[in-house]
Design a protein that fits this description.
- The complex is a heterodimer of chains A (298) and B (236).
- Chain A is built from eleven helices and two strands; from the N terminus they run ααααββααααααα.
- Chain A has 298 residues and is mainly alpha-helical.
- In chain A, α2 runs antiparallel to α3 and α2 runs parallel beside α4.
- The relative contact order of chain A is 0.19.
- In chain B, β1 and β2 form a beta hairpin.
- In chain B, α3 packs parallel to α6.
- The chains are: A mainly alpha (298), B alpha/beta (236).
Chain lengths: 298, 236
């Protein structure tokens, strides 16, 4: 029973972090039709920024807020400086599909190099605001820490805020309309380019939050979030790439599958489980198990 | 306020879609641009709303050039284009579709009253507010598209094939609504149509396009009664 409860709790808290990364990929995909491979590097970069703030101020929360804001600015900057220009120059044909992939992959490399140049490749640690040691439940220590609980609460609050933003505000309506139908949105007077940049900013912020919640209890180094990017991407695909709800649900499916196989069988099954799920979804329901079934438009 | 198009030429890559087209639409008038498939009607309209760049020529509304403006800025200044077929966002609800102009319009009171007017004009939309626009019939989608345009309080309305794919009775209803917009609300309308007869019946003036060139500009009544023109270009 203890093992079961622990597995559920760890599934929820790791699923929550994958959900943030997944959301950041989905937000960019639905507005731009680009998988932002640079998102991992953006999150690492802003986590280093958060690390610097925490080292100087001693406050984890100040570091987290600065990192999220930096993530938003960097996301918006990538859209304005690179993506807009690329789409202006390569708007049709195969190049329109390839150019953004090359650009985001190149940015991944450039940002990684930049990080190595500034901070070196040694491991850094970020002290969590609460203990990362397992809680004691019914007298035995489990693999779920107070920090995991904090992650769960922080992500839940972020989800509620994002849901209100998207469903209840004019900005959210503009984001949804521009993602589904950019041309009709323009004809309705919506500044689609600015709205798209805002989407990149929110995505960047979500990715940075994922990074700041992922690193405590682990190590920060230039390549520390490659796994997070892969899991976030798998979660997004499970969810159908187009839907924020799907991104969260996909992340939870992945979190549960990984943690249960690790807990009940072997930790060596973490990656095989993730990829088996990805392959099964792509084989059986390639539009994602949480998509409306209408298929992705591309 | 008058729409003045002069010597407008538009290319699709190496292909000339519109060649040296000129016409005028004074305020409160309905001009029908008619012609067969491939005549360049939609291209012309997309250029007037900033979705496509012109190669040469000019187009002005109220004395200001509209060719160098962005689509969203034109929409905000009252030049609203309802693109062809079913110009609604299928994934959003009817209510959200109607709410799009309210995102940027400052006068929220007027947005509310414009929305009420639209729902009075198309009561069926009022019954379907919480449904997704994708679940509407073709006629209802057209009403929604026109309704959304009206909530932006347009001065110049550009309508692309509102009759496309609709049953004859619904077409008649849509055309009567468009006529009402001109006579009652003093809108200026450019109506692009393949349904030449239906369009000319409600229009003040007709512009006949063939292969990207204007072949006739005259009052709608005269065009309707010109047998040679009817046989050659209008197909009825």
């Amino acid at each position: 029973m203890n093992q079961f409860i622990t597995a559920v709790l760890t599934s929820l808290s790791s699923g929550a972090i994958y959900a943030l990364m997944s959301i950041s990929l989905v937000l960019v995909w639905r507005s731009t039709r680009v998988i932002n491979f640079a998102q991992a590097a953006q999150a690492v970069l802003t986590t280093y920024i958060g690390y610097e703030v925490i080292t100087r101020s001693g406050s984890f929360w100040l570091g987290l807020i600065v990192a999220v804001i930096a993530g938003g600015i960097i996301g918006a900057g990538i859209d304005i400086l690179f993506m807009r220009e690329i789409f202006k120059r390569a708007s049709t044909g195969p190049i329109a599909m390839i150019a953004p992939v090359v650009a985001t992959t190149a940015l991944l490399g450039v940002i990684y190099s930049l990080i190595g140049f500034i901070w070196g490749i040694s491991y850094k640690t970020i002290e969590a605001p609460v203990s990362t040691n397992g809680l004691s439940i019914f007298g035995s220590v489990v693999a779920f820490s107070p920090f995991n609980l904090l992650v769960l609460i922080t992500v839940t609050i972020s989800m509620v805020v994002l849901t209100i933003l998207f469903q209840k505000t004019n900005i959210g309506l503009a984001l949804r309309a521009s993602a589904h139908a950019p041309e009709i949105s323009k004809l309705s007077g919506i500044k689609v380019d600015a709205v798209r940049t805002l989407g990149w900013a929110i995505a960047g912020g979500a990715g940075s939050l994922a990074g700041m919640l992922y690193i405590p209890g682990s190590y920060l180094y230039p390549n520390s979030m490659a796994v997070l990017l892969v899991f976030g991407f798998i979660a997004a695909v499970i969810g159908g790439l187009d839907s924020l709800f799907g991104a969260v649900a996909g992340a939870m499916v992945l979190g549960f599958a990984i943690n249960f196989s690790a807990s009940y069988v072997s930790y060596k099954l973490v990656f095989p489980t993730a990829f088996v799920i990805l392959i099964l979804v792509l084989l059986i329901k390639p539009n994602g198990i949480f998509s409306s079934g209408k298929g992705r438009r591309d | 306020m008058t729409l003045i198009v002069e010597g407008l030429t538009i290319d699709h890559g190496a292909i000339r879609a519109i060649s040296n087209v000129s016409f005028k639409v004074p305020q409160g008038q309905l001009a029908a641009i008619i012609g067969s498939n491939g005549a360049g009607k939609t291209t012309l309209l997309r250029t007037l709303s900033g979705l496509k760049k012109a190669t040469s020529g000019s187009a002005t509304w109220d004395g200001h050039s509209i060719l160098d403006k962005r689509t969203e800025d034109l929409a905000r200044s009252g030049i609203v284009h309802v693109s062809d077929g079913k110009s609604v966002i299928a994934e959003l609800t009817v209510k959200d579709n109607l709410a799009l102009p309210g995102i940027w319009r400052k006068d929220k009171k007027d947005v509310a009253s414009a929305t009420t007017e639209v729902i009075e004009m198309f009561p069926i939309l009022g019954q379907r507010l919480s449904q997704s626009a994708g679940s509407l019939s073709g006629g209802e989608r057209q009403m929604l598209a026109i309704g959304r345009a009206l909530i932006a309080r347009p001065k110049l309305l550009l309508l692309d094939e509102p009759s496309l794919g609709l049953a004859p009775l619904i077409v008649e209803q849509i055309f009567q609504t468009i006529k009402l917009l001109v006579t009652k609300m003093d809108l200026t309308v450019v109506l692009v149509e393949q349904n030449a007869m239906g369009a000319l019946k409600i229009a003040n003036e007709g512009i006949v396009l063939n292969l990207g060139s204007v072949v006739a500009v005259d009052s709608a009544n005269k065009l309707l009664s010109d047998p040679a023109l009817r046989a050659a270009y209008l197909g009825f």
